[in-house]
Structures are given as C-alpha cells and as structure tokens.
Design goal:
The protein is 37% helix and 20% strand. With 193 residues, it is of the alpha/beta class. It has one domain: Formyl transferase, N-terminal domain (Rossmann fold), CATH 3.40.50. The protein has a four-stranded mixed β-sheet. Helix 1 runs parallel beside helix 6 and helix 3 runs parallel beside helix 4. The longest helix is centred in the last third of the chain and has 26 residues. The structure holds glycinamide ribonucleotide. The site of glycinamide ribonucleotide (GAR) has 16 residues, from helix 1, strand 4 and helix 6.
Length: 193
C-alpha cells in the first residue's frame, strides 16, 4: 500500500470475525510513515516497508518485495492503494494469486488518476474494479466490479470518496469469497465456485 489505507482498514475490520474466512498475515508498503501501516500495527498485524529508493534498481526492489511477501506464505496477496507496478520476480511467484483494486470500471480509465480521468471524460457512471494482477497497467482478469454514479457538481475528491465506499464493500466481499471458496483463473475469466 502507499496511502490512507481505508481499503486495508475494511479488510482488517472484516477479518476480525473468524467466519470471514481470511486472516491478514502481514501488511507491506512501499514507504514508511503512512496511515495504512499505523492501521495495521493498531490491529496487531505484522508490517514491513520496502522503499524503491533503498535498492540499486527497480528489479532489486521487486525481488525484495517478493521475498518479504513470500516469508508470510500468503494464499492471496491483496494490493489496495498500492501505487507501484509488480515486476517480473513478483509476478513469477504470485501471478494468479495477487489482486489489486482500481477506482474505475476497467478497462476504462486505468492508471494513477481513475476518478479524475472519468470526470474529465464526462461519463455518467464509473466505479471500481478488483482484478488479478498481470504485467500490464490495470489490465488483468476482472474479479468484481461495482458501478457508481457521477453526480452534478462532483470534483475528483467527492467522486473518489463515493467510489471508495463501493470499493471497500467490493473488496471485503470478493476477498472473503476467494478465501472461503477458492478461485480459478482461466484466460480472462475468474471463477469463484
Ligand atoms: C483506492 O481508491 C484505490 O483503488 C486507489 O487508491 C485508493 C486507495 O485508497 N488505487 C489506485 O488508484 C491504483 N492505481 P485507500 O488508501 O484509502 O485504501
């Protein structure tokens, strides 16, 4: 994660109930001193932070990230507000079991500014997407989506906040189903039994 961590908080809250089916074994970030790490620590979850600037190159950071995640033996890796692309080493180990959430209805408006780009384009509905991470920018197979209206008078902040309400619900619902029931990836199709 890179930022406020409200999606993380939603998962931390959900996972307090054993019947949710997913336990959060660790929270990693690409920077220190962020709200998301504080949220994880408050919940008693292990944390780690690996900054790209502390490695000679991006591939070294990616390898270290893969090692740090692997140490916790996760069944599923959830990127939530993680603003970096996964590299080859990470995908080689976690491909097919790493999901990311994006604040737009992919394949529309990928990248760093989903809400702003949707607003600028003038769409009447946008939303959020949970997808399986692949080597592209927000291009992987889609697990779940929720639609959100764009309202008259919206600015980037108000629209993003409305999307994030739907996004947190989507994330908690989909991650719980994946944890409880498993999933298969066949081409672009995700099946949760
Ligand atoms: C979320 O809306 C997430 O989809 C977005 O950052 C926000 C993080 O919120 N991620 C991206 O735009 C990735 N390209 P949070 O820190 O409160 O969970």
């Amino acid at each position: 994660m890179s930022g406020a961590g409200t999606n993380l908080q939603a998962l931390l809250d959900a996972s307090r109930d054993p019947s949710y089916g997913a336990e959060i074994v660790a929270v990693g970030a690409d920077r220190t001193g962020i709200e998301g790490l504080t949220r994880a620590e408050a919940a008693g979850v292990d944390t780690f932070a690996l900054r790209v600037a502390d490695f000679p190159d991006r591939a070294g950071w990616d390898m270290a990230l893969a090692d740090a995640v692997e140490a916790y033996k996760p069944d599923l890796v959830v990127m939530a507000g993680f603003m970096k692309l996964a590299g080859d080493a990470f995908l080689a180990r976690f491909g097919g079991r790493c999901v990311n959430t994006h604040p737009a209805l992919l394949p529309a408006f990928p990248g760093m500014h989903g809400p702003r780009d949707a607003l600028d384009h003038g769409v009447k509905f946008t939303g959020c997407t949970l997808f399986v991470v692949d080597a592209g920018v927000d291009t992987g197979p889609i697990v779940d989506q929720r639609a959100v209206p764009v309202l008259a008078g919206d600015d980037e902040h108000s629209l993003h906040e409305r999307i994030k309400v739907a996004e947190r619900a989507m994330l908690v619902d989909a991650v719980g189903r994946m944890a409880r029931e498993g999933w298969t990836v066949t081409g672009r199709k995700i099946t949760i039994p």
